[in-house]
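User: As part of a screening pipeline, I want to sanity-check one entry by hand. Below is the sequence and the SMILES for guanine. Please return the complex as structure tokens so I can compare it with the automated output.
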Amino acid sequence: MASSHSVTVYWGSLINPKTLTCYDACPNSLIAVSSVGNILWTAHDVGPSQLSHILVQHGCPDAHIVRLNEGQFLMPGFIDTHTHAAQVPIVGTGYGLELLKWLNELVFPCETKFKDKEYAEEVYPLVVKRFIASGTTTCCYYGSLHLEATNVLATAAHSLGQRALIGKCNMDKHTPGDESDYIECSAAVSIEHTHAFIHHVHSLSPGPSEDPKNPLIYPILTPRFALSCSDDLLKRLQHVATSHPHLHIQTHISENPKEVEEVKKRFGCDYAEVYNKYGLLRHNTILGHAVYLNDKEIDLIVEKKAGVSHCPISNFNLKSGVAPIGKYLDRGVKVGLGTDVSGGFSSSMLDAMRDASIASTVLALQNNPSDAPEQENKFANQQLPIATLLYLATLGGAEVCALEHHIGSLDRGKSFDALIVDLHHEAVSDLKEMLGRFIFAGDNRNISAVYVQGKLVGGTSHCA
Ligand SMILES: Nc1nc2[nH]cnc2c(=O)[nH]1
Ligand SMILES: [Zn+2]
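Assistant: Here is the complex for your manual check:
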């Protein structure tokens, strides 16, 4: 048992996701957190008269108590399953462009600047702080193709205390229409730098958990997308993936009709099949976007237990399309949310939740009455309920990252990756209504504390 004074007990309202359709909303909960940031036990419906008895029962009468105020609640931190740290400098620009033109005209020139390590040292700590301030406790970042700069990103996330999956882009082939020199000089160098990056991440300490099995920073294999990888590179990536079964993988899939057409032209098969052929579809693969998957691809993704990162802000902004997320959920695909900066113009998962709601509403409005939901068709062409939006932003994201045993909800045995949300004077008496208010009308100012592995790393109450 942890020594009594090393335990912190949070006491107040709790929002905790359970399933795609259900979450707990408990007004008087206790969450006990160990000195290394793990949740030791929880209790619910605890009134002031019962507190000391419960603490004694759990062997920690002197625990440090953090009492939440009225208008505040605890919830798990957000898990952003897809975003680009190297594109924050152009966030909000490029309105009106579509994917391939946007990549060539804006994104590649922006990422090229990370060739300069000093530039990376200036930009990346600000990027990580920006995502932490949005309540993102775990973030899946794409860096640029540069080894040194991506090392800087990993070090920044580690020292600022954010949990992160970080990848150096693998890309040795021009995308259609691109003639810049923003590609790696060979497949061999791309892989050599990938190994060096993985080594750098493994040289960082595990962080507050002190447990190498529950580290703060994970390396993630990051073939940018099929079109920017030569066949040789894809084969070498397959070799890396096969020899490291625990290594996460992230990439883009079926985001834009022209991109899908180019993939078909080059590889002669479905997009998902390209990744499967090279051993890149598995339980710890994160597939960004997935707007245009066909039924065969959906089956393949379910079979391989890969996850989809739904990026609705970006899918609207780049006019990519509306991903049929309800249909994927009905078919058993694991789904999380991604901000996809700078395809998306916001680093806030609250915005991703709102746009996920709008995307589902668009499909619901177009719904042909003859497609009326059948019993096994719970989500397709329906507006996603609040419980589902919450799940996608937290526990669903954890499943997509294959980290659901550690994060995603505030349950015993998991890491205390949590937010204290403060609605101030806008609080209402019903906790479920408070959650709705936060999702649809809240912003960073309502995020009073951000904890990762028990450590306060951000929020309005945190002085950096
Ligand atoms: N949205 C988005 N799609 C991509 N496909 C390949 N690279 C990118 C990128 O940086 N952003
Ligand atoms: Zn992306």
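Points to compare against the pipeline: DSSP finds 15 helices and 17 strands in the chain. The first strand starts at residue 8 and ends at 19.
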